[in-house]
Specification:
alpha+beta, Aminoglycoside 3'-phosphotransferase, Chain: A, domain 2, five-stranded antiparallel beta sheet, three-stranded antiparallel beta sheet, globular, AGP_Transferase, Phosphotransferase family protein
Length: about 250
C-alpha cells in the first residue's frame, strides 16, 4: 500500500497524497463546488478530477514538481517562471466567472479588514507597531479600483507545477473567481522577488509594480495571525514576516 503523505492539514481542510492521487478533504462543500467549477473553466492545465464523494475530492497527481515554495529556494528555471507568467496571463485574459473570488474584495472592504488586522497584530504583540504601520502605508497602493479578471485567488508558488520549462498544471482553485489580476502576480512572487522580472517576461505589459509590491505587504499583514493560529510559521526565513521587513 502507498504511504499517505500529509501535504496540508489544519482545522478547515486537509490535502493528502496517496501514490498518484491527491485527496482533498473539506467540510465546506461550497468551497469544493467553487474549485470544481473553476477548474472546468480555467484555460490553463489543471489536475484531472478522478472522483468526488463529499467531503473528499480526488485529483490525479500532476507531472513534474512545484515551481518552488515560500521560504525556500525555487527549483524552477527563469524560463519556467516565465512560463508561469504566460499561463497566468492566459487565465487573466479569459472571461471571468460569475463568482467573486478571494481577490475580488473591494478596496473599502479590504481597508477595513486590514485596519482591524493591523490593530490585532500590534495588540497581540505578534509584530512591532512600526513594522505594521510602515507596511499598512505601503499596502495603500493596492486599495484602488481594478478591472475584474479570472483570478486563481491563492496562486502560491507551490501551487504551480512545472516539468522542465513547461507548466504542467495549477492546483488549489477553491478561492478562484472574479478579482484583481495583480493579486495573483503578487501571490506567485511573494518571497521570490528575484523572479518577478522572469514572471513579467512571460506575462507581458500593463503591470503596475507599485501595486504588486503593495499586495506583498497587504497579503502578508492579513495572513500572519491566521498562520500562527493554524500551526504554520510566518516567522521562518523567507516567509511572510521577512517579506514585511523587506518592504521597509
Amino acid at each position: 500500500m502507498d504511504e499517505v503523505e500529509v501535504l496540508v492539514a489544519h482545522s478547515e481542510r486537509a490535502t493528502l497524497r496517496v501514490g498518484e492521487v491527491f485527496l482533498k478533504v473539506d467540510a465546506d462543500q461550497a468551497r469544493i463546488d467553487a474549485e470544481v467549477e473553476a477548474m472546468s473553466l480555467a484555460p490553463v492545465p489543471t489536475p484531472e478530477i478522478l472522483w468526488r464523494r463529499p467531503p473528499v475530492l480526488a485529483l490525479a497527481a500532476l507531472p513534474g514538481t512545484a515551481l518552488g515554495r515560500l521560504g525556500g529556494p525555487s527549483t524552477g528555471s527563469p524560463a519556467a517562471w516565465a512560463a508561469a507568467g504566460a499561463a497566468l496571463r492566459e487565465l487573466h485574459d479569459a472571461p471571468p466567472p460569475a463568482r467573486e473570488g478571494r481577490a475580488g474584495r473591494s478596496g473599502a472592504a479590504l481597508a477595513a479588514e486590514l485596519d482591524d488586522e493591523c490593530e490585532l497584530l500590534v495588540a497581540s504583540g505578534l509584530l512591532p507597531a512600526g513594522l505594521v504601520t510602515r507596511n499598512r502605508r505601503a499596502a495603500e497602493a493596492a486599495l484602488r479600483p481594478w478591472t475584474a479578471a479570472f483570478t486563481h485567488g491563492d496562486l502560491q508558488v507551490a501551487h504551480v507545477f512545472v516539468d522542465g520549462d513547461e507548466v504542467t498544471g495549477v492546483i488549489d482553485w477553491s478561492e478562484a473567481g472574479r478579482g484583481d489580476a495583480l493579486y495573483d502576480l503578487a501571490t506567485l512572487t511573494l518571497g521570490h522577488e528575484e523572479h518577478l522580472d522572469d514572471v513579467l517576461a512571460g506575462y507581458g505589459t500593463g503591470v503596475d509594480l507599485d501595486v504588486v509590491r503593495a499586495w506583498w505587504s497587504l497579503r502578508s499583514l492579513l495572513t500572519v495571525r491566521w498562520l500562527v493560529e493554524h500551526g504554520f510559521d510566518p516567522f521562518a526565513p523567507g516567509c511572510e514576516v521577512d517579506v514585511l521587513r523587506s518592504r521597509t
